[in-house]
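Regression test case RT-17, inverse folding.

Input:
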């Protein structure tokens, strides 16, 4: 494992890329309404990243370890889709929950963030799942400080998800991010407190728990990318990119439209 400690110059570049990523999620929010297709949301985000922000969408043609190249500029995961949903021509309908995940590259550095969007009027259960996943993400973030261990993050997330009668997806995790899209370390969203590598100032990684209303098991779709819950239960995910500072953390993917840490989390 090779966890890169970022230089002050790199941290400044990451602040910009991450802010731009969050800005894309702010920009697209008013377009997420019943009837719009995820393909249209992809087109809008692509144009915004490329033409307005001068960024490169990292997901477009992204092809890790022999995967088929990812064909779009954002990921859109609806309802029981966990992650890596491919935008297409199916319109969103009233009551859907949608994750949009964006990763613009600016000056060679990646900003990676995702949020849940409620389409029209959403059921109480679906809303609750989105809230639990949001709280899971922030409980993980709140553990970040020099001297803490990666397992502290995963443990906080898992405990809260399971206490809430939900489950945490095991096959996908947070990750170091910088000049590379997916760098070391892997940031598991479950595990034992006190385990794993120690956090050090100038590390940058994502925390992006995927929380299922039902069981944790996943199924891979034939398109090679879309991941769904095996039991077809709803799934929700939020993602921030986080810097370890000298004293605690700095969330890099904040913007005016991003909701902050819930008050009850220390
Ligand atoms: N943005 C996702 C993450 O948070 C990765 C998407 S890879 C893709 O790590 F190819 F599916 F777009
Ligand atoms: Co990520
Ligand atoms: Co992402």
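Golden output:
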């Amino acid at each position: 494992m090779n966890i890169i400690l970022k230089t002050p110059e790199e941290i400044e570049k990451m602040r910009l890329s991450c802010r731009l990523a969050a800005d894309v999620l702010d920009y697209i929010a008013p377009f997420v309404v019943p009837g719009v297709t995820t393909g249209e949301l992809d087109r809008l985000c692509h144009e915004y990243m490329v033409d307005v922000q001068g960024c490169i969408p990292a997901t477009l043609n992204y092809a890790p370890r022999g995967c088929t190249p990812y064909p779009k500029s954002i990921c859109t995961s609806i309802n029981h889709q966990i992650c890596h949903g491919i935008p297409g021509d199916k319109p969103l309908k009233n009551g859907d929950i949608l994750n949009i995940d964006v990763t613009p590259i600016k000056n060679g550095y990646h900003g990676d963030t995702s949020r849940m969007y409620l389409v029209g009027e959403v059921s109480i259960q679906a809303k609750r799942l989105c809230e639990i996943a949001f709280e899971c993400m922030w409980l993980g973030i709140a553990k970040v400080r020099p001297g803490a261990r990666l397992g502290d993050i995963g443990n906080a997330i898992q405990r809260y998800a399971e206490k809430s009668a939900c489950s945490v997806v095991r096959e996908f995790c947070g990750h170091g991010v910088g000049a590379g899209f997916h760098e070391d370390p892997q940031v598991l969203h479950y595990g034992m407190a006190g385990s794993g590598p120690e956090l050090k100032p100038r590390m940058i990684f994502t925390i992006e728990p995927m929380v299922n209303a039902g069981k944790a098991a996943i199924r891979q779709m034939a398109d090679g990318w879309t991941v769904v819950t095996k039991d077809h239960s709803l799934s929700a995910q939020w993602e921030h990119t986080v810097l370890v500072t000298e004293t605690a953390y700095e969330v890099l993917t904040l913007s005016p439209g991003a909701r902050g840490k819930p008050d009850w989390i220390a």
